[in-house]
């Protein structure tokens, strides 16, 4: 069991989060297969301890398909919105096609190569597995991406207790998402 997950779980209990019994191994495997995802080790360990439910949380057992799918798709959909409406186009994607439909298709192709993100709470996401532990938590709203926790425990302390992110901390890499979080939306990702 992940020490990060255990500390995050204890902090969620302290914060008064509503927690359902943890996912069994069979339930986790079923959820991952159903949604075509893999939880990173820390997230899987947290969900084995307890499943947070209620406002902001994704209930992996009971939320309707439309809600789960929307939350899974939101990071990419948000970037596609910015491609279509706000001029988002990293230099590494090459020349932007003039036609809107062609630009969206090219952006989808590029984004399919980015690491997958899995919903945690609200617009907070963790990288899908496999990824190095500890997994960071990102806040993702369209192309506005920031680090919101160096790991799950750090995130719970920040989200629910107002503890600031350490200013000069080394942040784990999550591919292109990390570069966006570092302020590189206009640079070569």
Write out key terms for the chains shown.
189 residues, alpha+beta, two-stranded antiparallel ribbon, 7 helices, 6 strands, 15% strand, globular
Explain what this protein looks like in three dimensions.
This protein is of the alpha+beta class and about 190 residues long. It has one domain. Helices cover about 45% and strands about 15% of the residues. It contains seven helices and six strands; from the N terminus they run αβααβααββββαα. It has helices spanning about 5-15, 25-35, 40-50, 65-85, 100-110, 150-160, 175-180; strands at about 20, 50-55, 115-120, 125, 135-140, 145-150. The strands form two sheets. It has a four-stranded antiparallel sheet. Helix 4 crosses helix 5. The longest helix is centred in the middle third of the chain and has 21 residues, at about 65-85. It is globular. The model has no long low-confidence stretch (mean pLDDT about 95).
Order of helices and strands: HEHHEHHEEEEHH
Counted by DSSP, the helix tally is: 7
Strand order of the largest sheet: 3-4-5-6
Strand-residue proportion: 5-15%
Class by alpha and beta content: alpha+beta
Low-confidence stretches: none
Tell me how many strands there are: 6
Q: Residue-averaged pLDDT, rounded? A: 93
* CA distance, first residue to last residue: 35 Å
| Rg over C-alpha atoms, rounded to the nearest angstrom | 17 Å
What is the helix content?
Answer: 40-55%
The domain tally reads 1
- Which outline best applies? globular
């Amino acid at each position: 069991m992940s020490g990060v997950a255990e500390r995050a779980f204890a902090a969620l209990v302290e914060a008064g989060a509503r927690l359902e019994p943890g996912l069994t191994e069979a339930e986790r495997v079923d959820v991952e297969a159903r949604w075509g995802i893999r939880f990173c080790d820390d997230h899987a360990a947290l969900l084995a301890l307890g499943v947070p439910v209620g406002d902001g949380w994704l209930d992996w057992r009971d939320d309707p398909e439309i809600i789960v799918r929307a939350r899974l798709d939101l990071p990419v959909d948000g970037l596609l919105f910015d491609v279509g409406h706000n001029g988002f186009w990293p230099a590494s994607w090459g020349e932007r096609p003039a036609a809107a439909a062609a630009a969206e298709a090219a952006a989808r192709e590029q984004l399919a190569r980015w690491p997958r993100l899995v919903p945690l709470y609200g617009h907070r996401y963790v990288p899908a597995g496999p990824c190095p532990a500890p997994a960071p938590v990102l806040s993702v709203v369209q192309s506005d991406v920031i680090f919101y926790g160096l790991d799950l425990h750090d995130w719970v302390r920040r989200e629910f207790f107002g503890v600031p992110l350490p200013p000069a901390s080394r942040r784990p890499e999550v591919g292109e998402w990390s570069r966006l979080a570092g302020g590189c939306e206009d640079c070569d990702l």
